[in-house]
Amino acid sequence: METIVLTGFGPFGDHTENNSEHAVHRLDGLEVHGFKVRAVSLPVAFEQAVELLDEALEPEPAAVLSVGISSEDDGYQLELLARNLRDYRLPDAAGQVVTGQPVEVDGPPQVVATLPVASIKQALTQAGLRAQLSDDAGAYLCNAIFYWVARRVSPAGFLHVPSAPERLDEVTEAVRLAVEVTA
Ligand code: PCA
Q1: What are the start-end ranges of the H helices in the chain?
Q2: What's the whole-model pTM score?
Q3: Of 14, 31, 33, 112, which is most buried by a Cβ count within 10 Å?
């Protein structure tokens, strides 16, 4: 059976729990329209994350949806593009701070989402969730991982979800809806 890979992130900064990691794990093994969901946890540290990611993308899955929490917004953002930029003062989980580095040396300045983002947004909105399309995934790990995946797999996309731990059930349902539209 073909797989849809879901990636989520572990803790970082003040976030000792990360809804993205918990939500994707709750969906691990789910079968949707002939596809099997496979959840992958990534540390919020670039080198370690891309190493795990490269293993997870072999053999190439049918699609990848990456998920991360947003500390700034309490809605759902479907990211339209990822930039070839890593630039952050908030130390990652390996204690690293990065200024003006590319995700991929000589890679294109940006790559776009290839998942059906408008349809996913519509499904979330119909479920009563506040969802929007976004053209700024930041310059931290979410952007970097989205860029890395979108350079290697199509369709690929990224969903930023609310960080409040008490909203995990809702976040899980939102990711499930995104998977269903993708499948
Ligand atoms: N959110 C961060 C990285 C990990 C996560 O869940 C971000 O938006 O870049």
Answers
A1: 19-26, 46-56, 117-126, 141-150, 168-182
A2: 0.98
A3: 112
Q: Which residues, 6+ apart, have CB-to-CB distance to 153 below 8 Å?
A: 57, 60, 61, 63, 64
Tens digits of per-residue pLDDT, 106-149? 999 999 999 999 999 999 999 999 999 999 999 999 999 999 99
The rounded Å distance from CA 1 to ligand 1 centre is 30
Residue type, 152: R
CA distance 5 to 39: 6
Ligand 1 pocket, residue 141 CB under 6 Å: yes
Nearest atom in ligand 1 to the alpha carbon of residue 70 is 8
Measured between alpha carbons, how far is 49 from 28 in angstroms, rounded to an integer? Answer: 19
Q: How many whole angstroms separate alpha carbon 36 and alpha carbon 52?
A: 19
